[in-house]
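Cross-check.
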Amino acid sequence: MNDLDRCFSIAPMMDWTDRHCRYFHRLLTRRTRLYTEMVVADAVIHGDRARLLGFSPEEYPLAIQLGGSEPAKLAEAARIAEDLGYDEINLNVGCPSDRVQSGTFGACLMREPETVAAGVAAMKAAVAVPVTVKCRLGVDEQDPEVALDAVADAVIDAGADALFVHARKAWLKGLSPKENREVPPLDYDRVYRLKGRLPHVFIGINGGIATLDEAEAHLARVDGVMLGRAAYHTPDILAGVDRRFFGDAAPPPDLRDVVAAMAPYVASVLATGGRVPHVTRHMLGLFHGRPGARQWRRILTVDAARPDASAEVLFRALAAVDEVAVSAELEPALA
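Predicted model, tokenized:
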């Protein structure tokens, strides 16, 4: 994996970036690096691997994000993930949920750089694929100038191949996980200063990046950009990524072709016991801001949830979008 492979990626997001979401995103961008939701090392070792770790070959390039703090377990989980074909192992040092606090991993590890380094070193010794870290600026009362440097130096010394920084602190006391994605102020300059101090280390930035223009501006200062909520809620912006950031000559995918390509995937999910909403919930924002977006969301929310729903619901929703778009085009002529 080279630096270009990492320059644009979609952040790991709990309950969102599952395999269905990733398959959909891959139809919009062939080059963007995709990440799984965080999977706890114990679950990788002892859980249902087909359910937790399964993916489609079309999802490559693909990284798994692990949660945990015990080096031996992280190493074992990393070996399992590598054997399954993941391209990268990423360690979560940023999630602020109650679950990770009770398990002393995620953002809690910002207070324990030596523990993070031990986990990275163990995984590096266990696998040949890159091992990376995603962290916050700090937690609670920590000074970001001190806390971020401490974690960065520790993991780089341990052999980490890249560090991605969510440019906010996490408040473990008093804020929910959702609030921790929105309330603590963004401090991009702190990440820029880290990059300036570590010019030969791959530093990526994450948090509050809403457009490709913003992503490009960040890439003038750091090595990589991770989009989270913007990629999920307005996925159509991903269609412009390959040309803009990877220099691909092919035209951006047509959104209607993407919808058509999702139909056989939905059918395959139904054939294995899944339901249409398991897939279509990730597609609600595809026509965000365009004529027919409301009809698209309504059909994929209401009709897709019916017990007899099939992949046909995608074409019905797309027809509704086209009908509104045609009406919008004719309206000036009829006025």
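Residues 331-335 have pLDDT under 50 and may be disordered. Strands lie at 8-10, 34-40, 62-67, 88-93, 131-135, 162-166, 203-206, 224-227. Passed to J.P. for a second look.
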